[in-house]
Automatic annotation (TrEMBL):
Its EC number is 3.2.1.141. The active site is at 244 (nucleophile), 281 (proton donor). GO terms for cellular component: cytoplasm. Residues 47-73 are annotated as: Disordered. Pathway: Glycan biosynthesis; trehalose biosynthesis. It catalyses: hydrolysis of (1->4)-alpha-D-glucosidic linkage in 4-alpha-D-[(1->4)-alpha-D-glucanosyl]n trehalose to yield trehalose and (1->4)-alpha-D-glucan. This is Malto-oligosyltrehalose trehalohydrolase. Belongs to the glycosyl hydrolase 13 family. Substrate binds at residues 242-247, 306-310, 378-383. Residues 72-448 form the Glycosyl hydrolase family 13 catalytic domain.
Length: 581
């Protein structure tokens, strides 16, 4: 087979294949590329040495059997016999479920997670969104410090484990979305700078030098990232990608990297004959991210909407620190604005940033499903000092209100694993760095960060302590017990309604009508013939829902039909979904 590597500044490159050294030659057709022919099969170990330096993993390694620092291994993707015939599953009408392989089960593997996929099919979600799978040091971690962007973390099950997981998901009718990180690589096991200008000092990010998207050599770096993205979609039959923190992708070129990636994914979708999509995590509140390329946008199909989360979180908890401050002044107003306009910050002043932020979203051009709505995510739980979920502080009734607004609202809903049964387990920040100095730096940095907000150091879980990861694993006995079983039944009912009621997947943001009372702490909205009402207060509230006859589709607590004047008497910390044709 042909081995190849991009090393534009090298004077000599050698291939090291299972103890045999092969001189590589410059590719006359591609500047900066080196090639060599050598016998290989699935599993053959190899690496490259640049200018007689150490043997390093292949930047495009498909497998790292011994971790990020070990040799690469050849992967023959044709060896796997796919079982499921899969036409694909598009994003409109979807319900996503964010899942971390390492804590979804105590075993922390893709095969163990696959055995639990029946729970998700029964729940009614349509897509599983896997947190990053690229190799990282040690066994356990969040995955956002991965390297080898074409490979699968070996302790999770490697390439074969991912294929078995995707196959099982597709057999159950579930699409699979993968979280990928293009804005930085982990500090440990990252050998890309030895090969070429993958990073540039022209720009800086919170993680150091930026990925080179616009400096000399950036053509190949962009091709590297796009090739990785297409490989997940093609070789593993992934249905979509979630792109981490795209606001940190600094690109001054006229043809933005995200637009180029979007065009490449659309081209692959046409070639494969099944839908593929990209979901951005972006804090810019810029509608161009999810506007079609033909209309001057970047062409991504959707993005996370933190504004909805922040408004809902402040309405539920009353928290007002940090970025919650802007939303906490009038949380129900903020919630109403996001439900009808998509963004809360659409050019408004952000006290957290000390400047105006965002841009208005044109509701006549942008479909509601292009924004993802959620009450909890790995970020919003794991980046809290103790990784506490909403269930640690809220009553089951308020959790039901959060679920109702997420699952009947206009945005594509996304759940975080365990949310559907009000999991009592936290989800904390954990690492398994093999470099002692890096491990200590992460530990000190985490404690210093929260000490600045008044936390005692001893109250901050040690990321390197294996118990921190173990505490974060789901307890699969909980769904069989109360109050978890009741919350789970509520989620199932709401998801079923979303699939049954066309009005609940209507993409028209302009058709949503919202009423609320900030002081009484209730909010109601109408989507076509469906009316949804939530009462955040502990006391009952009378909510005007109109005089049309109403049928109760789902209610957290028993409720009577609205009175003759259209007043709905809703118990405290409760919610209801009505049909009013």
């Amino acid at each position: 087979m042909q081995f190849e590597v991009w090393a534009p500044q090298a004077g000599r490159v050698t291939l090291h294949r299972e103890g045999v050294t092969h001189a590589m030659e410059r590719d006359p057709e591609r500047a900066g590329w080196w090639v060599a022919e050598a016998e290989a099969r699935d599993g053959t170990r190899y690496g490259f040495a640049v200018d007689d330096g150490p043997v390093l993993p292949d930047p495009r390694s498909r497998r790292q059997p011994d971790g990020p620092d070990g040799p690469s291994a050849v992967v023959d993707h044709g060896r796997y016999a796919w079982r499921a015939e899969w036409p694909g599953r598009p994003l409109p009408g979807a319900v996503l479920y964010e899942l971390h392989v390492g804590t979804y089960t105590p075993e922390g593997t893709l095969d163990a997670a696959a055995e639990r996929l029946g729970h998700l099919a029964e729940l009614g979600v349509t897509h599983v969104e896997l947190m990053p799978l690229c190799p990282f040091p040690g066994r356990h971690g969040w995955g956002y410090e991965g390297v080898s962007l074409w490979a699968v973390h070996e302790p999770y099950g490697g390439p074969e484990g991912l294929k078995r997981f995707v196959d099982r998901a597709h057999e159950l009718g579930l699409g699979v979305v993968l979280d990928v990180v293009h804005n930085h690589l982990g500090p440990s096991g990252n050998y890309l700078p030895a090969f070429g200008p993958y990073f540039t000092e022209t720009h800086h990010t919170p993680w150091g030098a930026a990925v080179n998207l616009d400096a000399p050599g950036s053509d190949e770096v962009r091709a590297y990232l796009i090739g990785s993205a297409l490989a997940w979609l093609r070789d593993y039959r992934i249905d979509g990608l979630r792109l981490d923190a795209v606001h940190a992708l600094v690109d001054t070129r006229a043809y933005h990297f995200l637009e180029e990636l979007s065009a490449a994914v659309d081209g692959l979708s046409a070639d494969l004959g099944r839908p593929l999509f990209l979901i951005a995590e972006s804090e810019l509140n810029d509608p161009r991210t999810i506007t079609a390329r033909a209309e001057g946008g970047l062409g991504l199909q959707a993005q996370w909407n933190d504004d909805f989360h922040h408004a809902l979180h402040t309405a539920l908890t009353g928290e007002s620190q940090g970025y919650y401050a802007d939303f906490a002044r009038a949380p129900l107003y903020a919630l109403a604005k996001t439900l009808t306009g998509g963004f809360f910050h659409d050019g408004t002043y952000s006290s957290f940033r000390g400047r105006h932020h965002g841009r208005p979203l044109d509701r006549t051009r942008v479909a509601a499903h292009r924004l993802l709505g959620y009450s909890q995510t790995h970020d919003q739980i794991g980046n809290r000092a103790q990784g506490d979920r909403l269930s640690a502080a809220l009553s089951p009734g308020l959790l039901a209100c959060a679920a109702t607004l997420t699952l009947t609202g206009p945005f594509t809903p996304m759940l975080f694993m365990g949310e559907e049964w009000a999991a009592g387990t936290p989800w904390q920040f954990f690492t398994d760095h093999t470099d002692p100095e890096l491990a200590e730096a992460v530990r000190r940095g985490r404690r210093r960060e929260f000490a600045a907000h008044g936390w005692a150091e001893e109250d901050i879980p040690d990321p390197q302590d294996p118990a921190t990861r173990d505490r974060s694993c789901l307890d699969w006995s909980e769904p069989e017990r109360e109050p978890h079983a009741r919350v789970l039944a509520w989620y199932r009912r709401l998801i079923a309604l979303r699939h049954q009621q066309p009005d609940l997947t209507d993409p028209d943001l302009g058709d949503i009508k919202v009423a609320y009372d900030e002081r009484a702490r209730w909010l109601a909205f109408r989507r076509g013939d469906v009316c949804v009402a939530v009462n955040f207060a502990a006391e009952p509230a009378t909510i005007p829902v109109g005089s049309r006859p109403a049928q109760v589709l789902a209610a957290w607590e028993p409720v009577d039909a609205p009175d003759a004047e259209g007043g709905l008497r809703l118990p405290g910390e409760s919610c209801v979904v009505l049909a009013q044709p």
